[in-house]
Write a structure and sequence with these properties.
By secondary structure, the chain is mainly β. It has a single domain, classed as Flagellar hook protein FlgE (Tick-borne Encephalitis virus Glycoprotein, domain 1). The protein has strands spanning 4-10, 30-37, 43-54, 57-62, 73-80, 86-90, 95-99, 107-113, 125-131. The strands form 2 sheets. A 5-stranded antiparallel β-sheet has the order 2-3-4-5-6, with no helix packed on it. Strands 7-8-1-9 form a 4-stranded mixed β-sheet, with no helix packed on it.
C-alpha cells in the first residue's frame, strides 16, 4: 500500500487571492492528481487542489470526489519567502487519509511531501508526482 507521496509544483505568484465573498469558479486555483494504491494494489485517485489565500500563502486540499467540492479536506497551508521558496508548511508533514474501495481494507494513511513546491511568477506547473506502492504485476520470466 502507498504510505508516502510527493508533489513537486510551482504555484504562480501572480495568481489572484481567492475571495470567498466573490463567487470564484472554480473553488480552487490549481489542481492535480496521482494514483495511490491500497494493500491489494487497487488504484485510488488522490486529488490535490491549491488556492491562494493571501500573498505568499496557499492552502492545499484533498478531495476524495475529485471535483473540489465542499467535501475537500485541508491538508496543509504553505507559506513562501520573497525568493519563492517554501518557508513553512503547516503541518510540516501532512498525512492524508485515503479510503480504499474495498470495505475490508478500509482507510489507510499516506504522508504527503510538499517540500519542493515553489512560488514563482510563472505558470502553474507540476514538475513531479511520486508515490510508493504500486498495482499488482505479473511475473513474466526468470533468466539465469
Amino acid at each position: 500500500a502507498t504510505t508516502s507521496m510527493a508533489a513537486e509544483l510551482n504555484l504562480n505568484a501572480s495568481a489572484p487571492v481567492w475571495n470567498a465573498s466573490v463567487p470564484n469558479v472554480p473553488l480552487t486555483t490549481y489542481g492535480t492528481s496521482l494514483n495511490v494504491y491500497d494493500s491489494q494494489g487497487s488504484a485510488i485517485p488522490a486529488s490535490l487542489y491549491m488556492r491562494k489565500i493571501a500573498d505568499d500563502t496557499w492552502q492545499v486540499y484533498t478531495d476524495p470526489t475529485s471535483d473540489a467540492t465542499a467535501t475537500a479536506s485541508l491538508a496543509a497551508t504553505l507559506t513562501f519567502d520573497t525568493n519563492g521558496q517554501l518557508a513553512s508548511s503547516v503541518p510540516a508533514a501532512p498525512t492524508l487519509s485515503i479510503t480504499s474501495p474495498n470495505p475490508n481494507i478500509g482507510t489507510f494513511s499516506a504522508a504527503l511531501d510538499l517540500s519542493k513546491t515553489t512560488q514563482y511568477a510563472t505558470a502553474f506547473a507540476v514538475t513531479d508526482l511520486t508515490q510508493d506502492g504500486y498495482a499488482p504485476g505479473d511475473f513474466v520470466a526468470l533468466s539465469i
